[in-house]
Amino acid sequence: MRIAYLVLLIVAFAAVHLLIGGARLLFALPGYGLIALAAAVSVYSLRRVSVAPQRFAVVSAVIFFGYIALRAALSPVAYLAWPDLFSAFACAAVYLLFACHLTTPGLRLGWMVALGALALAGVLVGAHQFRVGGDWMPFGFLRPESYRGRASGFYICPNHLAGYLDVIALFALAIAIWSRAAITWRVVSAYVAAVCLAGILLSGSRGGFLSFAVGVLVLIALTLVRLSRVGQVSPVKPIVVGVLILVFSVGIGWLAIRQSTLLERRAAMIVSADNIRLRLWSAAIEQAKISPAFGTGAGTYLYYGRKFRPPGVELDPIHTHNDYLQLLAEFGLAGLAAAFLFVWAHGRAGLIAFGQLGTRGERHPWGLSNAAALNIGALSSVAAYAVHSVVDFNLHIPANALLLASVGGMLANPSVEIDAPPGPVALGLRQLVPRLTLVAAGLGLAVVALPKLPGEWYAEESRVARRDGRWLEAANLARLGLGFEKQNPNLYFSLAESDWEQSQHIRNPAIARSFADAAVAPYREALALFPEDARAWLKLAWTLSMLGRVDEADAAFASALAWDPNNGALQTYYGHHLRTLGKTELAIAAYRRAVELSGNPDAKANLLQLEGRAP
């Protein structure tokens, strides 16, 4: 059965990874379904005797995942909390599968082989993206213009590709140096590490550069310690392999940077005071002050990031680009403490196992050990992500969160007894409770997440239809989605937007007005579910303004400005509204504010006209 669990996990992870890393909820749900299946059927292995996971590590994991799920379930906007809620269940299931069942080095090496194949495919895609410099993505997805010229593989954002490749490269290096595999496979592993490093460079991710460097330093330190402990005949072979890998990797990196002005520029910007992340972090700090103990709830940075955005930040700050600050803002000091407990417990478990593995080499004269290779790769990966999480939000990308969950499971159970005497372990509560928790996590994931799939499907299809100008189709798709899901504000918003756009393309004034009137109700439905959504308030306000419903429009604009006061585009629309009412002085003030915030060209043109300075 363990091979069946592994196959299900590989297929699930591949599905999430290939579909932009699951960055939109729809694309994570199919993989979550397979994870739920693997966790639920693990009931068949409930009474199988094996090495038990480290007790303290598992307890810390249950506390962390349990708190995240509970706080997400109690968050103010249910829809915004779904990604974190479902991710907590899925990551707990993956973690416990590795901690309780996928415990042998052979199964874990099989997992890493599959992940390595995905990494090679991602770098191949990324190399094409880097070469052509466009917005091309597999499977018809689109990338923002700001990422053009950088490799992102199957992900939307290059930084998330780098976060994935960091882990795979470090495991591949550890396996190449310490695995007992045949030399051919170790050379292949070294090649995978070199390709992953090349992919990190092509991504242009400064956080990826730094975190990989930290991970390599930890890997080298652990390797040197192990060399001093295993009592092998000679340390030359693994050292030579490691040096050759590093020289080859550095050579690839140097050549890649020298061949690209983009990479040279980004390498020079590794330390930069003029970084938008600092402004996003300031908004998260202001948000954290609202509810320091337990945070404001999962997903709430979307609207508090707008509310506290500094001038000059016009794009929606969906994430803070700092996993620690976002955790603090949304889950409070309790969430941050649970996360640090989890990391400390698993670092402790990994280092204790490293010490025990360091005293033997599985009877190999050179001290080679598959378990030690995996242990060193896992510890190095945790160190890398501890750094990368300072500047990015990889743990909010399901594919990368699931990857780290598997690493945590490996550290929790390195197939070496840590807090019990050596020898066979009788099946007791220490093994039974985590396995029952695993089954419960799988069933919970199936119950809470899978019913959302039809609604998410229609919401995404409606969004794409709107993007392509197919307004009537978008409206029909949104209505179909509402037949399955009433708690998704995006469905109501998409319906409203489709009706509004149709009103702008119909020549008959009476029919056009009827479509604009029809848009008001779904905008209000969306706001009933997500009352802090400045975007929906703005669209409602503008629709009401065009319909001549002035008092309602004023109230809607007031709500939009309350939740997004430093948005230049919003101030521009407000200026247009005031100008149509003949409130010239107030309109001038709004336009001036828009120009101060973002230099909005539309606001500039209108300001010049009202001040009589237009050419």
Can you offer a commentary on this structure?
By secondary structure, the protein is mainly alpha-helical. It has two domains: 2-450, no CATH class; 453-610, Tetratricopeptide repeat domain (Serine Threonine Protein Phosphatase 5, Tetratricopeptide repeat), CATH 1.25.40.10. Helix content is 72%, strand content 0%. It contains 25 helices and no strands. It has helices at 2-18, 25-41, 55-73, 78-100, 105-132, 158-178, 183-203, 206-229, 236-258, 261-268, 276-288, 301-307, 323-357, 370-388, 398-412, 429-449, 453-467, 471-482, 489-504, 509-529, 534-546, 550-563, 568-580, 584-598, 601-610. Helix 2 (25-41) runs antiparallel to helix 16, helix 11 (276-288) crosses helix 13 and helix 21 (534-546) packs antiparallel against helix 22 (550-563). The protein is elongated. The termini are far apart.
Furnish the topology, listing elements before pairings.
Elements: H1 2-18, H2 25-41, H3 55-73, H4 78-100, H5 105-132, H6 158-178, H7 183-203, H8 206-229, H9 236-258, H10 261-268, H11 276-288, H12 301-307, H13 323-357, H14 370-388, H15 398-412, H16 429-449, H17 453-467, H18 471-482, H19 489-504, H20 509-529, H21 534-546, H22 550-563, H23 568-580, H24 584-598, H25 601-610
